[in-house]
Every structure is written in C-alpha cells, then in structure tokens.
Amino acid sequence: MEHRSLGNTGLSVSILGYGASPLGGVFASIDEREGIRAVHTALDAGINYIDVAPYYGLTRAETVLGQALSGIPRERYFLATKVGRYGENLFDFSPQRIERSIDESLTRLGVEYVDLLQCHDIEFTDLRYIIETTLPALQRLRERGKFRFIGITGLPLKIFQQVLARSEADTILSYCRYTLADSSLADLAPTLAERGIGIINASPLAMGLLSLRGAPAWHPADAAVKNACRKAAELCAARGYPIEKLAVQFAIRNRAIHTTLVGTASPAHIANNIQWASEPIDEELLAEVLALLEPIHNRTWIQGRTENN
Ligand code: NAD
Fold first, then answer.
1. pLDDT tens figures, 183-208
2. CA 136 to centroid of ligand 1, rounded, Å
3. Average pLDDT, the chain
4. Which residues are catalytic?
5. Long-range contacts of the stretch 138-146 (C-beta < 8 A, 24+)
6. Is the CB–ligand 1 distance for residue 15 below 6 Å?
C-alpha cells in the first residue's frame, strides 16, 4: 500500500485508512467478531491508520476497536480518536471534559497513547471557544504524552479556514468533501499544504450515498443529491464496475490528500477496498459518472451553527 506524509507530523500514513465508526453500529447492526476481523484484514493488508471517536456508537466503536487491537504491537498502526462530541446533540469542548475524555478513550482502546487527538465536529460549537480555550488546553495536555498531534474535524470547509487563521493544528479531517459528488476540499488543499497541515479525507462513499445499498435513512443529503447518486450507482452496476470501487479510486489518487478513511465492519468490504486501491481507475466510466453528477456537484448540506456554514 502506498504511503504519504501526513503534513508535517512525520507520520507516513497509508493512502487508505480504516474508519472505525461502523464498529459502533452506526450504519447497520454489526457482528462484533466480523468487525474485529475487518480491522485485522485492514492491518494485514498494509493499512496503518485507524480513526475512531467516543461518539461512534456512544463509545461502542472504541470498545470494539480496543478488542481488535489487543495483542497487536503498538508500532504497527497510527491511531486517531477525538474529543468534544458525545452524542447527536451532546458537545463539550471544555478543558475538564477533554482531559477526562482522553483517559476514557485510552482505557477503552487499551493503549497508552494515540497519535492524533481531534476536536470532533467543531461546527456545532462557538469557534472562538475552540480557538481560545480548547486548542490551548490541548497544547498543554499534549505534554503529558497521551497524544502526539492535534487536529480538528467537521463538515463545512469554512471552519478550517476560520480556526486556522487564528490558531494552530497539525491536521484537519474533512468528510464527504472529496468524493465523486463533491470535490470542494481540493480548493482548500493548497493553503493547507503551505502550512504543512495533514489532510485526512473521510467518507469517500459520502456515508453510503455512493454505494449500491444507498444512503442510510438518517443521511442529510437532499433528494436531488440522493437521486443523482442512486443513478450513478445504477450506471456503474450496469457496467459491472461497483460505484464503491470508482469512489475509493477517485479519492486516493489525489496526492494533495494524505489519507482517505473508508469505514466498514465487513472483512470482505475492506479487502475489496484495499484491492481496488491498487488497480487503475476506469477513466471512461469516471468521466461518465462525473458528468451525471455534475448538476449536484459540490452541493452539500447545512450542519451545525448557521454562522459556521
Ligand atoms: P464511507 O463513505 O466510508 O461509507 C461507509 C459506508 O459504506 C458503510 O455503510 C460501509 O458498510 C459501506 N462500505 C464501505 N466499503 C464498502 C464496499 N467495499 N462495498 C460496499 N459498501 C462499502 O463513510 P464513513 O464510514 O462515514 O467514513 C469513514 C470514516 O471516516 C468513519 O468511519 C470515521 O472514522 C471517519 N469520519 C469522521 C468524521 C468526523 O470526524 N466528523 C465524519 C465522517 C467520517
């Protein structure tokens, strides 16, 4: 598996990373033993970057991931988790809560440190608080050695510009913004690269929109986006080329993006994703799919506070 440097962190990360949110049963109910096998399949095939959060399955994803990682040498993987989001509408970015949160995550994951600690979905909160209180607290807490780097995550790209204009972070995690349907993260990438900020692209399947199974009921995209993506999935299926394959291949080939996180609790799916990452993309089909999705290109949804969108 090809690797890229995660900004200035010095971490050499696999271009495909493992997103552990499905281990929390976020997309569908899961068999935990299968989920654990999915993690092992990912590591055995050369994925060295794993992303999780206390929020996923309300701590279940971290717990199941901890079981999967038990006994695996710590130097075999980079591990990222998050602080600040604890429920659909439960956020707490205070220094007291994040300090406790780190210890809780380390216990669930069964590790002594994580490589990256990220403020989770900051568009739901006052960005001034993140800049003036949370990030400075994380800088101080970092000295205790429980995490190495600090990141911020969220959906609207504006949040990254606003926070980074007044503060420092090692990485950003953006999701659903570098896919077949929305490539707006590419516009921000040069500015981030100039500052040596690591770029993590999550949800190349746009949280299931770009899959034959389709988006889960809770998916926030509007009907036009869902319809266009469904038509694209059907077009790919008719050509015998899964849209999931095209979507993964499209995301990883942009060198400005350091790693792309794809989530699944299925060993077969993660094995497919890894296999597809090593194959050339079908350029003709890609052009057709991009043309089909053009009417909804970069059409996103509002998330979090209005002023952060
Ligand atoms: P995704 O785009 O990777 O889609 C996941 C869905 O696609 C699941 O239903 C999964 O079963 C399915 N899938 C995956 N591979 C497949 C395959 N080969 N064939 C068929 N279906 C397949 O979305 P995601 O899981 O939301 O994103 C990946 C990871 O990124 C998450 O697990 C999480 O770790 C991270 N993430 C972080 C944030 C954040 O910090 N705010 C937001 C979104 C995602």
1. 999 999 999 999 999 999 999 999 99
2. 30
3. 97
4. 56
5. 138/83, 138/98, 139/168, 141/95, 141/98, 141/99, 141/102, 145/113, 146/102, 146/103, 146/106, 146/112, 146/113, 146/114, 146/117
6. no
Domains, the chain, with CATH or none:
3-308 (3.20.20.100)
Are 62 and 94 a contacting pair, CB within 8 Å? no
Contact 82, 47 (CB under 8 A): no
Cα(265) to ligand 1 centroid in Å equals 9
54 pLDDT above the threshold of 80:
yes
Taking 80 as the threshold, does the pLDDT of residue 29 lie above it?
Answer: no
* Ligand 1 contact, 205 CB (< 6 A): yes
Question: What was the pLDDT predicted at 216?
Answer: 86
**Per-residue pLDDT at 25:** 87
C-alpha span between 66 and 179 (Å, rounded): 29
Ligand 1 atom with least separation from CA of 262: 3
Nearest CA to ligand 1 atom 14: 264
